[in-house]
Specification:
With about 100 residues, the chain is α/β, with parallel strands linked by helices. Helix content is about 40%, strand content about 35%. The chain contains 3 helices and 4 strands, in the order ββαβαβα. Helix 1 runs parallel beside helix 2. About 25% of the residues are buried.
């Protein structure tokens, strides 16, 4: 999985490409932990994410909980296959998806 970050003031955009699974989740967790301290607006661009596992869902959920305390988070450009996972797990009711 590739992770692209773009920070502009208190806004952070993260684009994920490839597969967010057990192998790649620790990398994303580390990037998030190192990047969120002063962020008030977080956007995940999932236009090129083709797979998400339960470990990836856990990271998205824990990031959402953190951003609820310090600002807002949204998920954009979700591929159909990933959206099916969000729908079947109830994440569509938790996340702001655009």
């Amino acid at each position: 999985m590739d992770i692209e970050k773009h920070k502009d003031g208190k806004k952070l955009d993260i684009k994920l490409t490839g597969r967010l699974d057990t192998k790649s989740s620790p990398k994303l967790k580390e990037v998030i932990e190192d990047s969120l301290d002063d962020v008030e607006e977080l956007t995940f661009d999932l236009s090129e994410l083709i797979y998400i596992s339960s470990s990836g869902l856990r990271i998205i959920l824990s990031t959402q909980k953190r951003m609820n305390k310090q600002g807002s988070m949204k998920v954009t450009n979700v591929q159909d296959i990933v959206m099916e996972v969000f729908e079947s797990t109830g994440f569509v009711d938790i996340l702001t998806i655009e």
